[in-house]
Amino acid sequence: MTGMEAIRWATLPIVGLCSLPAAAQDLSPRPVAPxxxxxxxVPADQIEFSAATVEYDQNAxxxxxxxxxxxxxxxxxxxxxxxxxxxxxxxxxxxxxxxxTNPAGDTAYGDSVVLAEDLRDGAVANLLLVLDNGSRLAAxxxxxxxxxxxxxxxxxxxxxxxxxxxxxxxxxxxxxxRRVVYDENxxxxxxEGATVSLFGLPILPLPVLSQPTGSGGGPGxxxxxxxxxxxxxxxxxxxxxxxxxxxRDLTITPHIYTSVLPALEGQYRALxxxxxxxxxxxLTYSGRESLSLDPTGQERDRLRGFVDASGxxxxxxxxxxxxxxxxxxxxxxxxxxxxxxxxxLRSTINVERIDADSYFSLAGWAVQTLRVGESQGQTPxxxxxxxxxxxxxxxxxGGRVELQLNSLAIGRTDGQDTQRxxxxxxxxxxxxTNWGQEVDxxxxxxxxxxxxxxxxxxxxxxxxxxxxxxARGIAAAAIDVRWPLVGAAFGGTQRxxxxxxxxxxxxxxxxxxxxxxxxxFDLDDSNLFSLNRFPGYDRFEDxxxxxxxxxxxxxxxxxxxxxxxxxxxRMSGDETIFPAGTGVDERFSDFVxxxxxxxxxxxxxxxxxxxxxxxxxxxxxxxxxxxxxRRTYLVLGYLRLNRDIEEGYEDLSDREEVxxxxxxxxSRFWSVFGSAIVDLTNRSEDPLSIAxxxxxxxxxxxxxxxxxxxxxxxxxxxxxxxxxxxxxxxSFLFRxxxxxxxx
Length: 743
Fold this sequence. Notes:
Involved in the assembly of lipopolysaccharide (LPS) at the surface of the outer membrane. This protein is about 0% helix and about 55% strand. The chain is mainly β.
């Protein structure tokens, strides 16, 4: 439920909770259509009138019209079986399937309507009022004075009142009341002696209820969230929405718990001419358990909380600025109060300029670690990060040249500091041969300068580099050839594309260079044919190599298959900079590939793998599958990294896990859902792992109801890991959202 979907409750004495039951108000559609719009604008002093027959009583000065009577004046339109107009008193009485539409688009239906001559003010019996946004008000009787409707013994719903077959159905949510006042100008409905009903069952009596009807919304209480957890006990979160202006709002949410002190959450949002920004935070006063192994590490109560702010502004068609601030007072707060599962919080600032041929970025970022055992002093702070690129066309050979300038400064409060700057140029040219081969030529040149200190504070030795100033020159060249072969097969079309790449780079001084952005390398299908297979700039693969593989694609009616597989051969005999276990540390690399299968919109399967070149053992095995429709589906995921890298050379450890989730639509509106994550890692794969080969991480199960205006659900979740005061255990969340309220 959004901030514009607000309900305002007024607190009255408890005796006022016993509201009078509303009579059987008919919210279903009426058999008469709304009066159509008139073809031409009617002058304010004239009435447009049509009927099958018209009788005029000259003595009484009464006009009686019968048979599909239509009357229009000052934007108000009336349709009825019979209309009696007393010209002396100015009273207009409409009878039989009456429908009246005002200039705002609201339509009132009734059996008998008495109106003034301007068709605005009057009284209606057996009223149905259909607002322009689709909401409905039904009442035994009602009257209108100016822009205010007053209804007696009424019912209101923003929900659909017919099913998919057009048959009447009970709305999932409605409000019945002794008296209802609808103000068109204020776009607000006020209920007196109200009762809120779900699925026809009264669940909440309210003495006074106020509800906005327009898109602008209004201040008031939002629907609360109810949660039960082992750590915090029973929780009620009751948001209150403030509409500060058409482009600014504020939501304040008190959280009340039975096991801990209350918390206060707030969110401010604003939309400006140039962009938008939001600020969210939460604050409480509580104790927390130490993350150390000391069982007596309980800290005294203190202020705890978090802040999450972000924004983006487009200053002109080229320049923009964006940023975010994400900080928490401690490492367990977000998980303890079920706000986020993130284990690192990143704050950023970035000024960008983008046009057709150039890109400029001046950025900075800082990271707060929430991981157990990871030192905050070792986490980097990058400021500034400068990147400039410009593309120009090659006037000689017809290729394209990209020039790049880059600078980075990384500091740590208790770790290694690094500064880097480089200037580079890359030339790319693509040609097609007469036989249909695609040939890509690439040349790259770059000059790097580095400075670093405090290298002994970095635990992983290959990441350190040498202290002081270091310089490096890089030159690389590559030729990449593809030969697509297309033809008919199996009743469809298949494409087989052999591919070979030759790349050469002279020997480089990689070891003296600190490694900040090229860590945790693993060979896969995405980087097999890259000119530099490392993920960043600090490491660059040297030597000569040939890389070869094949891409395959098959397209059938409703079925697509895409696959690739490849391997590389290092032709130079120099020692490689890749550590053992990455798949490319010997002359012949491991085999890497990917297979994707899709059957209509029902099955999607992706398999990525790395096979050991010697014994074909799976070193990387990653499977993601989705089966089903948008309403009923199963999602499966599996990952196993079996790299066996020697400890101290990389900080990416081996792991194995399985993920599963799904939803079953048991009826048109009801569904059941669930998910689970299981850690399959054992100590033979990761000596630091505490898992025994089958360790559940998190699971959940629930049911939900969702229609055009109501969402409700109950979710059970279990966490299996303790992190300080974020304890393992069960939690339950009950949620109700009235989606069309205030729209």
